[in-house]
Amino acid sequence: MKEEDYPALYRSASKASADSQSAYLLMIRGQYALLFIAAVLSLWFGGDKQVYAAYAFTIAVSAVLLLYMSIMKPERDWYGARALAESIKTSTWRYMMKAEPFVDAPSIKTVRTTFRQFLKEILDANSHVRETVSKRPMNGDQITHTMDNIRRKPFLDRKAFYLRYRIQEQRNWYLGKAATNRKWFKIWIGLCIAIQSALVALALVRIYNDQLLSLWPMDPLMVLASALVGWIQIKKFNELASAYGLTAHEIGLIETSLKDVDDEAEFSEFVNEAERAFSREHTQWVARQNA
Fold this sequence. Notes:
This protein is mainly α. The chain folds into 2 domains: about 1-150; about 155-290, no CATH class. Helix content is about 80%, strand content about 0%. It has 10 helices and no strands. The chain has helices at about 10-40, 50-70, 75-95, 110-125, 130-135, 145-150, 155-210, 220-235, 235-255, 265-290. The chain is elongated, with a radius of gyration of 25 Å. The two termini are about 35 Å apart.
C-alpha cells in the first residue's frame, strides 16, 4: 500500500504528526544548543563585557523557549495526530478486508456510508488536533479506488494481500525500528561515556598541572554530557527497541494463525484481532512518550 492509497484524512494526520515531531525535537535540540553556547561563553568571563551580554541573551532565549514548550506542549500535536492517523489506518484495513463493522451489505453504498461515519467519529474523538491536521489538507478521496479494488478481490486474494502488505510489512517495520533504536542507543551511550571520560581525564590533568591550558572546557563538556543523557531519555532508544522487538514477535504469532482461517467470518475476526494488536502497541507507545 502506497501513502496515496489511504484516505486523504490519514495523509493529513500523518503529515501533521511528522511535522509536529520534527518541530518538537528541533526545539529540544535548540534548547541543548543554547545551553552549550552559554557554557562556552562562560569560559571568557572576566574579560569583555560583551561576553556577559551574549551570555545573558543566550540564557534569556533558552528560558523563553523552555517557557513556550511548557505552555504550548508541542509534543501533544505529535502524539495526537499520530493517534488519529493510526486509527484511520486500522479502519482502512478493516474496510478493505470486509471485517466488522464493514462486512458486505446489499449495497456498497451502505458500507461506504458506515466508513465515512467512522472517519467522522474518529476525527471527533481527536478534536484536539483538528486544527493541526486542517492546516495540512491533502488531495484525494476518503475512500480511494485502491481501497475499493482490494475490497472487491476474492477471499483468498484479500487474505494473501493482508498477509503480505499488512502483517509481514508491519512486522518488518517493527524489526527494523527495533534494530535502529538499539544501534542508536549504543552510539549515544558511547558518546556520553567518551565525553565523561574526557572530563575525568581533564580533571586529573588539572590536578597535576593547572597551567597547562588557559581555558579548561569542563563546563561545556559537562553540559554536552547532560544533553546527551537527556536526548537518550527523550528518545527512549532502549525502551523502544525492546517494545518494538516484542511487538514483532507478537505479530509473528498472529501471522501463524492466519493459515487456519478458512472463511469470511473467521477472516473478519482475525483481522479485527490483528488490528487491535497494532492499536494496542500504539497506545502503549503514546503512554511511554507521556511517561
